[in-house]
Amino acid sequence: MGDLDKYNSRRSTVYGQRGVVSTSQPLAAQAGIETLRRGGNAFDAAVATAAVLNVVEPTSTGIGGDVFGLYRTADGDVGAMRSCGGAPAEATVETVRAAVADGTDTDPADVEMPDTGPHTVTVPGTARGWETTVEELGRLTLSEVLDPAIRYATDGYPVTEVIASHWGYAEELFTDAHAREAYLLNDRAPKAGETMRLPKLGATMEAIAQEGADVVYEGHIAETIAQEVQSKGGFLTVDDLAAFEPEFLDPVSTTYNGVEVFELPPNNQGLIALEALNIAQAREAGEYDLHSVDRVHEFAESTRLAFHDGHRYITDPNYEEIPQLNAKSYARERAEQIGTERLEDVSFGVPNANAEDADTVLLCVADDEGNVVSYINSRFAGFGSGLVAGETGIALQNRGSSFSLDESHPNKLEPGKRPFHTLIPAVARLAEDDWAAFGVMGGYMQPQGHVQVVSNLVDYGMSLQEALDEPRWRYREDGSLAVEEHIASGIPTKLARKGHDVRILPGLQFGGAQIVRNESGTLSGATDPRKDGLTIGY
User: Fold this and answer.
1) For 184-201, what is each residue's pLDDT tens digit?
2) 360 an active-site residue?
3) Which listed residue (237, 360, 392, 422) is catalytic?
């Protein structure tokens, strides 16, 4: 019993011989394992898990959103897949301002980008992203991979507590009868334990399984999506949808205390995590005691400087030149600005306040062939824009609300442009034959979570589960520094003495997280206890 008394983690790290799946909802994790058992690899299991999450956790993800992957293959390749669409071809600062102001007393020049509605809908990347992942990296067919999701959508599933607590927002967001019918139970949000069916979404997934993703981008579903947006005054067309293709690209990376960390390049916010790690390394932040105020201060200030830079520069690289924010030399310059007190006059600089606590699902899979993948999906804020495309059951994202209508802003709205994107899966090479795929959910929490998980593993030698359990901190867009309610006693008061505006918040405000690892053939994984998640190994 003595050893057990010393064990601080709330759960145990999970091990498997053939594979490990980790995500935020137990039924989705089971679907990933089922796919591995049917002969699929980690990429097949990732898509199967993501598709089930679309059904059992529709409060955070869906076909109407985007998907990204970062991975290390059995052949040793480290790569990334980005599947996010841009603004409609007819969407400009002028056209959106005029459309939003139409019928009101508002001067178009005073219009800001809406949080929801038709003008926030960008081309959804999920369906093509799933298909591309399976075809290029998987082993099974798309139909086989989507089967568990179709089954849950058609037959139903019990709603879990955390997801039920988030579902209530749909009652306010969805105003159209067909949207409420698609996602509400007797015109209300389902309660924990109630069985929920999504037959319209199930029929759409069946169509994708049989006809491929083209049905969403060029077929009758594409026509329904475009008609839905245009009927509300938006500009999305079938041509916008048909022109979309996912892309494979090289990740950006840095080293932190001997570990190589890989992130997604712009238009995603991966550079923020890398810059923060570089600054923290230059400051030797990981040398401080784990539960010391100096450790939190050094890492938090490093991250705030990285946010200041990232929110100033990160956008679609096809439209703006972006500096190399992950350069070690630049980090050393930034590190010199940090002192023993909170830095003044360093703005957080949010592209959009909606991303403060945006809703996301993340999953990680490792298989016995050597593949590890971090896969992340989102509609941005909950159910997205408030638009559901006709009878398809597809709730359309509001990612376009991240655009600015300020002509001088790097992230300004332009036709075809992709907005600043919060979603960032990650991979780390911990040693020569030791790879981890991981991620932390929740808008601007994501890069802050990556920094903390990496440091927990590298600087303090934690197990996977301990690294996720450790209480977190996060800078918020109002400049305050939030700390988790379970953080070591005395730290909040000492941070306040250093000039920080400290808030103590519950665990759900600090994002969920998942991680899997292949350490010389030993497979393991862990899931954040802050959500309903589960890691399964077999």
Assistant:
1) 999 999 999 999 999 999
2) yes
3) 360
